[in-house]
Amino acid sequence: MPGVFWFDQFRNLASPPGEEYSDDNGSGRVTFQVGVARLRQHLNRWQMARIAEDNRLGPDFLLELEALYKTVFPGRSFGVPEPMYRGGVPTPDDYYFILNDGNRAYDIEEMSAGEQSVFPLLYEAVRLQFHHSVLLVDEVDLNLHPPLAQALVARPPPNWTECQFFLTTHSEAVTSVISPEQTLRLPGGRLCL
After folding, report:
1. Does the predicted TM-score (pTM) go above 0.85?
2. Within 13 A of 52's CA, how many CA atoms are on the CB side?
3. What is the extent of the structural domain holding 93?
4. Low-confidence ranges of the chain (pLDDT < 70)
5. What is the CATH number of the domain that holds 159?
6. CB within 8 A of 6, min separation 6: which ones?
7. Count of domains forming the chain
8. Which end of the chain has a smaller Cβ tally under 10 Å, C or N?
9. What is the pLDDT of residues 92-113, one digit of tens each?
10. pLDDT tens column, 60-83
């Protein structure tokens, strides 16, 4: 879907710190936990449709998301949802969405800071099917080790090749992989890619 997509430093899962949080008062401000719970619910719906072999939801978005995730985080994969044991008939809200790093299995709420920074971008890219779009990403290197940030910027996921990116960063590691023709330095010495 062509369009303009903006990702702030909170990657749009939650409201910025210091703002009042609510998940029911209509303000649109949510905690990180509520944002993660909503993401988990969507992922589990995709996962359960896959398990039930229900093709009414369209293409296997989870397969596409896992491929992107593995591109950015090699050696990691998605696991089978695990129940939260709340009793009654389980719904997508009643399962953890499991990731595996080769050594341990963990829920998306337990992702590393780097994963928390990148995963929402990957999820939205799959959910909204970015093609011929403009992506604005604030602090693209947020919580990423320099080599990972460089890899993400230098080799974006394959389905993003038809997109135009506007990235902000304070990282010299990131700017070192961007050509000078594609870098804009803001007045006062600050960089803007």
Report:
1. no
2. 11
3. 4-192
4. 1, 10-30, 54-58, 86, 158-159, 161, 189-193
5. 3.40.50
6. 135, 136, 138
7. 1
8. N
9. 778 889 999 999 999 998 988 8
10. 888 989 988 888 888 999 998 888
